[in-house]
Specification:
This protein has about 325 residues and is α/β, with parallel strands linked by helices. Helix content is about 45%, strand content about 15%. It contains 13 helices and eleven strands. The strands form three sheets. It has a six-stranded parallel β-sheet with strand order 8-7-9-10-6-11. Strands 1-3-2 form a three-stranded antiparallel β-sheet. A two-stranded antiparallel ribbon has the order 4-5.
Length: about 325
């Protein structure tokens, strides 16, 4: 039988959870495949065995990586179940079938959640996904309910999980309260939390509560009002400016120039829902003309057909458009 070698990239995998203390989980697989050499080097797993065994082990580890991303962790019983399925001649991919995910679909999944996964579901969302992969700055513009913010947070969380960046910074103008916020009671957190709540909601849907709490306490994830971004430089970060239609032209320039080395930014907004005072011009409207021809910056425009909330949201948007044109 021909000997072969397979190298598997484990970037984004929790290695201690994956291998177990003193590699106890990995040793279970080694015992089941005594003829194979299985080595961990940093974030790389190397398999050396007969071609058929190498192929089988590759499928086993693919299944276990899928499970860890899906569940957040794997245990001894998960490994035993995968090995039992092999012994029963049922092969792997059983868990993918259980969760209704095909091999072709896995590559489009942005992030696994506890009971579900996040993936682009409309043509514009697919375009959005590709633009974020290809560009350092992406503007997502369109009506409410199209997934602009939710997907942006998913992109950021996935980048953090895969160790592509070290920090997530989520930013919103708190224009409804007045950017000074001075007249509101409480400390800064109590003043701005109501206006940043949609960002918290998205994070809580994607990250287990205790882990999110740790990230927030350690400032690995930071949620701040736009007015507090001045003077900062954000390196190795994924930065999101939400509701950008409520940023002034000066604030938009200030935000975009915060971007540091190895950082990405997504700016989302709906130019039909501007809450700025009448004398203020929206930075999101102006920036489309200023940056339209710059490399590594892309604009994605969402339509009513991309609305993924309750089916009535699309009808409501259309009703308002009809009313405003009368």
């Amino acid at each position: 039988m021909t000997k072969s070698e397979k190298v598997i990239n484990l970037t984004g995998i929790d290695l201690l959870d994956f291998t177990g203390v003193k590699e106890e989980k990995l040793n279970l697989i080694r015992e089941a495949f005594e003829s194979a050499l299985i080595i961990i080097r940093g974030e790389t797993l190397i398999i050396k065995a007969d071609e058929r065994v190498t192929e089988t082990l590759s499928k086993v580890f693919d299944e276990l990586m899928f499970l860890q991303k899906r569940q957040g962790s794997i245990n001894i019983s998960d490994i035993e179940l995968v090995l039992d399925l092999l012994d029963a001649g049922k092969g792997t991919n059983n868990f993918k079938e259980k969760f209704g995910i095909s091999n072709g679909e896995i590559k489009d999944i942005i992030l696994f959640k506890k009971t579900d996964f996040v993936k682009p579901r409309t043509p514009t969302q697919i375009e959005y996904y590709k633009k974020v992969q290809e560009n350092d700055i992406v503007f997502a513009i369109g009506p409410a309910g199209t997934g602009k913010t939710y997907l942006a947070v998913a992109f950021a969380v996935a980048a953090l999980k895969n160790k592509q960046i070290n920090k997530i910074v989520l930013v919103r103008p708190a224009v409804e309260a007045g950017e000074s916020l001075g007249f509101l009671p409480g400390d800064i957190s109590e003043k701005v939390d109501p206006y940043l709540r949609p960002l918290y909601d998205a994070l809580e849907d994607m990250i287990p509560f205790e882990k999110l709490k740790t990230y927030l306490e350690r400032n690995i994830i930071e949620i701040v009002p736009l007015a507090y971004m001045r003077g900062r430089t954000l390196n190795n970060s994924f930065v999101i400016l939400d509701e950008a239609q409520n940023s002034s032209t000066i604030q938009m320039k200030m935000f975009l120039t915060r971007l540091g080395v190895n950082s990405k930014a997504i700016i989302t907004g709906d130019v039909t829902q501007i809450d700025l005072p009448k004398k203020e011009y929206s930075g999101l409207i102006q920036i489309q003309e200023i940056l339209k021809n710059l490399k590594d910056i892309s604009f994605v425009y969402f339509l009513k057909s991309d609305v993924v909330r309750h089916k009535l949201v699309k009808d409501i948007i259309e009703a308002y458009e009809k009313f405003n044109t009368q």
